[in-house]
Write a structure and sequence with these properties.
The chain is an all-alpha fold. It is 44% helix and 0% strand. It has 7 helices and no strands.
């Protein structure tokens, strides 16, 4: 692989100063790399090397807690991992609540359902029309809550029928 030459020492110091200004002490590496991805891509597009960026990050003090200096390979690997899609937890935090996680309100109907008025019935859409049914009252009973009832014991006739069906299906045992 054709490697790019290392930048001069002064350029590394300048780049370290620029990165130090963007870095907040105690910040995690991956969110920093994710946020600064456009800058890194621009620098790489301008013929900078991963090794030069690694030297600048080390000089700026942007390292993992081990204080181990960056290498071109380790920075490239960390940058690649930072660009992967976020896991569900982090993605939910950025985009707000997931509609599937929001618990719907239960409507318990204790009497007969109200008659549906013509305002709740969807009419065929006409060209340019935005007819939507009114959402004030539910149009159907979504949940029925019953008290627990133990399973009834089968009668002798039902037990005989079950046994006969078992014999017809599986044969004599």
């Amino acid at each position: 692989m054709n490697q790019k030459p290392l930048p001069p020492e002064q350029e590394i110091k300048d780049r370290a100063k620029q990165l130090r200004a963007l870095w907040m002490r105690g910040q995690k590496i991956r969110p920093f790399l994710r946020k600064q991805a456009p800058l890194f891509r621009q620098l790489l597009h301008e013929e900078r090397s991963w090794a030069g960026l690694a030297l600048a990050m080390t000089k700026a003090g942007i390292t993992y807690e081990t204080k181990k200096p960056w290498t071109a390979d380790s920075l490239l690997q960390a940058f690649s991992r930072a660009q992967r899609p976020l896991n569900g937890h982090a993605r939910r935090k950025e985009s707000g609540p997931n509609p599937a996680d929001v618990k719907p309100a239960l409507h318990v109907v204790t009497s007969a359902p109200a008659p549906v008025s013509s305002a709740h019935i969807a009419k065929p859409a006409e060209a340019g029309s935005t007819n939507e049914p009114a959402r004030s009252a539910p149009r159907f009973k979504p949940v029925s809550i019953k008290p627990f009832e133990p399973r009834p014991q089968p009668t002798q006739a039902e037990l005989a029928e079950i046994e006969q069906n078992r014999r017809l299906t599986f044969g004599r045992s």
